[in-house]
Amino acid sequence: MSERKVKEKDIVLEITEKVLEEIMEAGYSESIVSINKSKTVMAKIANSQPSVIQDWGEVTVSMYLAKDKRIAVVNFKTSSIEETVKLAKKMLSEISIIEESEYYAPIPKPKPAYVPFTVHRSILKAFEEPEKIIDNALSVAFTYDIDKVAGMLEITMGIRSLASSTGASLVEEYGTYEYYIRVFKGEGSGQWASSGRIFREENIAEATRIAAEYAIESSKPESIEPGVYDVILSPMVMGNLLNVIGRMASALNVDMGFSIFTGRKIGEKVLSEKITLADDPINPESYGAVSFDAEGLPTRRNVIIENGTLKTLLHNSKTAVKHGVESTSNAGLISPHPWSLELKPGTYTLEELISEVKNGILVTNNWYTRLQNYIEGSFSTITRDALFLVRNGRIVKAIRKLRIADKLSRIFKNVHELSNRLYQIKWWEVEVPTFTPYVLIKNVHTTKHML
Amino acid sequence: MKIEILMISRGLKGEPMIDETILEHIVARGVKLGANYVEVRYHKHRGSYAVTRMNKTISVGKVFSEGVAIRVLVKGSLGFASTNNVSKDSLERALEKAVSRAKAFSYMYAEPISFADAKTVTYSYEVKPVKDFNNVSIGEKIGFYKEVYNSLEASLMQSKLRSLVIEYSDDVEEKVIVTSEGSIVKSSIPRIYVFYNFVLHTPEKGTIQRMYELGASGGLELLDKWDIVSRVAEEAKMLEKVLLKGKSPPKGKIDVILGSEIVGLMVHESAGHPSEADRILGREAAQAGESFIKKGMLGKRIGSEASTVIDDPTIPGSYGYYLYDDECVEARPKYLYKNGIINEHLHNRWTAKVFNTVSNGSARAMDYTSEPIIRMSNTYFKPGDYSFKELLEDIRVGVYIKSYMEWNIDDVRWSQRYVGLEAYLIENGEIKEPIRNPVIELTTKGFYESVDAADKSLEFHAGTCGKGEPHQGVPVWFGGPNVRLRNIVLGVAPY
């Protein structure tokens, strides 16, 4: 790491501590100040050429402000630190006339087990030459007989710092990439994604190849009737559904009635024994890797569901006090959230999963997942891109779009087997990076338009 | 409610936003660096918010964002950069990045980007609230939540309230846009937004959940107009009946009356989105997808004579209100589908060039980090001349679906599904007992062709429409009258 980088990191932390000092002098009883300084480049591709190249340089300041158990959270996107301090001080008179928060808890004292992440040199290089990466990806795509390509590459580097009135003083650097590509051929298309903290050309090439192959294999789809099928959900689809489950594991969402875990007990069997879902922000490969949470606690791997049994919700110190447990280091200043989800893989290859299916479908991608009722988990989602009919252990043809309309708990109780390889998925429809295999689920309800 | 639109020739009232000469300097410098087009937008949001649960406050807060977005067209390549350090040096650096990144990618364009001509304009406008929220404490603004809780609880006969969440936010959005073609547009728009979620529960029947959003441009007078206390209690009372007494929907071909809330969402999803010309041209293909509408389909029939869908940013007091878009093009109503015919798309200056037309002012950006892209504003189904009673009277067996929770539509905006929440059986022209989870699952053409009548009412509903990469959420209204569909087979809700 260069001397210049160390200096910038230290300056950001110094400013963070100074802001905290001013806020506390203004009369707050507790405060957390966090500053994030980042730069990002993003190239968007459509019709096999760039559509726009975007570049961002930003400073964001967020603060947790408490006085007499009353809570305020402020978010500022401005480089004007003076302005943020002025606005934060102004909040003091406002929070004195609101009532105590039912989620108030003292800010936790810092814990020492903190190992900051750094920026991998491959990210630094990628940031300087996104055009070469896009050029290479297009070259890989057009080694196939395809019609057109769309997609996105984003490289981000930044520094995040945190200072709290209980003595936390933390700073770390981060660098990430996100890439996804959609390839079109005839009436078919394929889409895949790759992301992480270490940039590897071969990962870009692999995602491109998977998308191109699915596009070609799905180029002549036929219609089938909806009904109850065994379905294999690809990592793209699982990423989308596990994001829903992961957010539902936030203790505040549970309390607010936005979760299938509302009313369920820790230790209760909630999903199939085949499901072990963790939140793992300390995986150094993850796009979502982070060493401390928004309250300054060192992050850790939490197993949310182990062999189908609910082991923990995701907590910050506030929801933890309310639920009578310890924080899981998933703060959110108000709402806890997952950092990086991971579904434990199985032992099957994808081919072996397909060979298990007598009458089913392979879903490679989906979007627009919406719920009728969050507590009951009734939902539907619509497939997009390649979709295949599987009969007697073999893919027999590409098929047109269907909807999955079912209950989340039923789907995740009917898990039959999982494949043995994890893919890291993050893209437009998968906000929280998710490591997941292909998953075979029995007896899933599908629907289709009637007119 | 009274919203005044003030046109001020020399800057806006209130605090100064930014020194315009800096923006003009950046524009001039961009041209010197070789850009054919430069657009510099100062964009600020400031507001407050609060979240409550049941009859208690969780937290309150403020949001503030301020920065500058720069867009350049260099050798047919589109570059964008933004920064929230608004000093001259920082803006110069951002400009240089936008230009150099655009140049680095320019060799990859088989079809270089260019913009359709647009008039040069100088314009300022401001929405002035009747009750300004800027100097009112957040505690006063959200004082209604305890009353909502109490009246909701009081409205329930047998079920229990399992959850009530209310989120309040207000925001003032201020912009100054300067282009290398000499246009300058300034605006200031205050908005208020309220989201609520409640869940009713009985041990025997399980739960029923309702989420709804209210939003508009204006001030605290909107809270009086919305009367959230009565609104939530009334809805809870009706939904309790659906939970306790709701039966399965009828099978076979029936007639369906869709309420304004669903009609509004349907036109947003199946007329507004597929009419976005950037989607039609494939620019969003890897994200929100493409459109069943292809270039050359203007004039094709998509529905019945009764089907007209309009997008109009100029509705005073609306949530999606603006008079000039973020490319400095004047806004106007667009008849997307007119009497069942695909009539006009939503354009920005790039798509207008490709379609050999002029922009109709549909480019919007969420904040300073966002490029302007084609967006809806206030999209609605044009009311007809029936009364609600007339819609009902010749229906022998049907359903009336008033609100929804679950919905989705495919990525070309053709196959869509909406699951009713508050819904009733219709028998011999009369509304009867509640039904649970009726499903409308049909194609876009199937929907618009099945519409045979609409009543005279017009209601709007608020939402935050998502599009773009990075994701941009912008305020929109969607709405319409009650609309009748003939010969519909309801879909399946396998819950």
Give the SSE map.
The complex is a heterodimer of chains A (451) and B (495).
Chain A: H1 3-25, E1 30-46, E2 49-67, E3 70-77, H2 81-95, H3 121-128, H4 130-141, E4 148-164, E5 169-185, E6 188-196, H5 201-217, E7 228-233, H6 235-248, H7 251-256, E8 277-279, E9 302-306, E10 309-310, H8 317-323, E11 341-343, H9 350-355, E12 359-363, E13 366-373, E14 378-383, E15 387-391, E16 394-398, E17 403-407, H10 408-413, E18 415-418, E19 423-427, E20 430-436, E21 439-447
Parallel strand pairs in A: 7-12, 11-20
Antiparallel strand pairs in A: 1-2, 1-4, 2-3, 4-5, 5-6, 7-21, 8-9, 8-11, 9-10, 12-15, 13-14, 14-17, 15-16, 17-21, 18-21, 19-20
Helix pairs in contact in A: 4-5
Chain B: E1 4-6, H1 20-32, E2 37-53, E3 56-74, E4 77-83, H2 88-105, E5 122-128, H3 138-141, H4 145-155, E6 160-179, E7 184-202, E8 206-217, H5 221-226, H6 228-245, E9 253-258, H7 260-272, H8 277-280, E10 309-311, E11 334-338, E12 341-342, H9 349-354, E13 363-364, E14 373-374, E15 378-381, H10 388-393, E16 397-401, E17 404-409, E18 415-420, E19 423-427, E20 430-434, E21 439-443, H11 444-450, E22 451-454, E23 459-467, E24 472-480, E25 483-489
Parallel strand pairs in B: 5-7, 9-16, 15-24
Antiparallel strand pairs in B: 1-5, 2-3, 2-6, 3-4, 6-7, 7-8, 9-25, 10-11, 10-15, 11-12, 13-14, 16-19, 17-18, 18-21, 19-20, 22-25, 23-24
Helix pairs in contact in B: 1-2, 4-6
